[in-house]
Amino acid sequence: MHSTITVFRSSSSFSNRQVNIDELNPVATMDKRLTDDAQNVNETNLISVYRKMAKDKNIALDQHQILALKHLDRLSQEIKASPFYSSITNDTIGDDEGIDDVQRETSSSFFSSISSFFARGGNALQAAQIKHTPPKGVYLHGGVGCGKTFCMDLFFNFISTQNKQKVHFHKFMLNIHQQMHQAKEKGIKGDEVLNDVIKNVINQGIIICFDEFQVTDVADALILRRLFTGLLSRGAVIVATSNRPPRDLYLNGLQRDLFLLFIDLLESKCEVVSMWDSDVDYRLVAGVNKARGVYFIGDEGKQDFDASFRDLTKGTMTEQITLMTQGRAVTVPQASLKYRLARFSFNDLCRKAKGAGDYLLIGENFHTVFMEDVPSLTMNDINVVRRFIVFVDAMYESRVKLILQCESNPDGIFKVDLDNQFCDEAFAFDRTRSRLEEMGSDEYLRKRWVGSIPGTNDESINNKNGQRPVASDDRDFQI
Fold first, then answer.
1. DSSP annotation of 462
2. Domain with CATH 3.40.50 in the chain
3. Comparing C-alpha atoms, which of 129, 137, 126, 112 is closest to residue 258?
4. Is 107 left (phi over 0), alpha (psi -120 to 50) or beta?
5. CA atoms within 13 A on the CB side of 58
């Protein structure tokens, strides 16, 4: 399935050009560049794989990670022992036999809709059952860089079934809302809208690994309990990482007392494992060798920032283009389609009404993104902070090389006073700060971009001479 992106050039010497790219599919996102140790060594459990990796000096032993892996190993063994999970295929995992329909939405009022979404259906723990009761999933929570995602990735690579998926939670929910909209456009109504989406999710993989599980958006909060009830009733197994324990999800959110029913459901279906006692941020350990030319600080760094952009575009002409897909229009002030580089100001991306879909589209099309004039932010800029957090997450998930010209180093971009140190944004920005540190490391910059495959999206692009531009990938990226 494909979507069409129209690229409008600002220069009158170019006509509109059509670009066909693979439709964004965050549900099926998998990081193929992760270590293959879990599959390549002849070990029977995750702890053995982990100790083998430590023996080979690929990692350092960490007792908090071993604890998490014990819970994940329990789950992997239960999956392996279950005839249901070892025999299912994509033709059977979406089967409706023995499944109750998702409860009907009847209210038209916004606030009563909130109540109906959260509260309808009686006891949240009495979800519709299938013939095979799923094993309990695992919910890992802890500080940034403690190894939550590493442990989940090891589990994901270790289990032999192909009916699995791994996805960033923010991307997942974005895709859920897109699929609901598409279902309604096809004439599907009422309960069947969410039922149709749930079947699609299950068909992508019945074992679902969510990275960075957090809930800050009311639109997500509205549907989570019904969505997860439907997934679990169809046999889904949930593994998640988060920097919040379940009881702190959607903290201070609208009508949160009703959201507590979803938390009850999540805690009943997953073992909750804390990694908060770990005081090591392995992103910072791995990022000791900082690559030069990724962060340019202050006005004095502006000239070097400009020079870096000229060097990486090899002095070729850049131009303003507009990317359009699924009703979104994202203007790129300076773009090099030949070298897959884009340049924005901070205000372009974070002080205008943009969301995850816009940022993912950028990450899909450019392996290197320059952002200039990044200021120091406070709680007075909270909406701007939220956009910056989502932007960095999108670039990180696409393995984009992010080059910033900032007022301060990453530690000083967002300053929180003592009264607000426990707010959602403060917790989320801890992860952002850690990711920015990691994104400045040699290790990160050696990772391959996971956006569009160079050259495959430009088949219908022609310049004014009728020639198709040659796209460059990121293999020769040097700072």
1. -
2. 31-274
3. 112
4. beta
5. 12
- Fold for the domain defined by 31-274: Rossmann fold (3.40.50)
Residue 57 backbone class (left: φ over 0; alpha: ψ -120 to 50; beta: rest): left
Q: How many CB atoms lie within 10 A of CB 94?
A: 16
For each of the chain's 479 residues, which pLDDT tens digit applies?
A: 333 344 444 433 222 333 322 322 332 333 433 444 555 445 678 999 999 998 887 788 888 999 999 999 999 999 999 888 866 554 444 444 333 333 333 233 333 443 444 444 333 333 334 456 789 999 999 887 788 999 999 999 999 888 999 999 988 998 999 999 999 999 999 999 999 999 999 999 999 999 989 898 888 988 999 999 999 999 999 999 998 899 999 988 888 888 999 999 999 999 999 998 876 656 555 544 444 568 888 887 888 899 889 988 888 889 999 998 777 789 999 999 888 999 999 999 999 989 888 999 999 999 999 999 999 888 888 889 889 999 999 999 999 999 999 988 777 788 766 555 556 666 778 888 888 888 888 788 878 888 764 433 433 222 333 333 334 444 334 44
Do β-strands 137-141 and 237-242 pair in parallel, antiparallel, or remain unpaired? Answer: parallel
